[in-house]
Write a structure and sequence with these properties.
By secondary structure, this protein is an all-alpha fold. It contains one helix and no strands. It starts with 6 loop residues before the first helix and ends with a helix.
Length: 117
């Protein structure tokens, strides 16, 4: 047996349906606003990716320049260390030669003193 919808129930159901429609419209408007925000976010993200790509290339180039500069400094330091080592050896030889000259002088002096006696 079918229940008959009375005019009061019909009016009540129309009010509920209208309320549901209004709520759906609010949800739809919210979805549209979210879609716009996501679109804007996607645009910003694309711009950020482009900027980061450029930044990455600039940074890579800068690190290359810095590495080259530091390599040159390292090579210069190696050359300086080599020169210092050579100078030390040279000075050692010079000191030894000066000592030898002094010893030869002393030996000659002692020989001359001994021959006098």
């Amino acid at each position: 047996m079918k229940k008959k919808i009375t005019p009061d129930k019909k009016e009540y159901l129309e009010v509920i349906a209208e309320s549901i429609n209004e709520k759906f419209e609010v949800v739809i408007e919210g979805q549209q606003a979210l879609n716009q925000k996501f679109d804007k976010l996607e645009e910003n993200l694309d711009e950020f990716k482009e900027e980061m790509g450029e930044f990455k290339n600039e940074t890579k180039s800068s690190f290359g320049t810095i590495f080259e500069y530091l390599t040159n400094i390292d090579n210069e330091l190696k050359d300086i260390k080599k020169e210092i080592k050579e100078l030390k050896e040279s000075l050692k030889d010079k000191v030894s030669q000066e000592k030898l000259v002094k010893l030869e002088y002393r030996v000659a002096y002692l020989e001359s003193e001994l021959t006098k006696r």
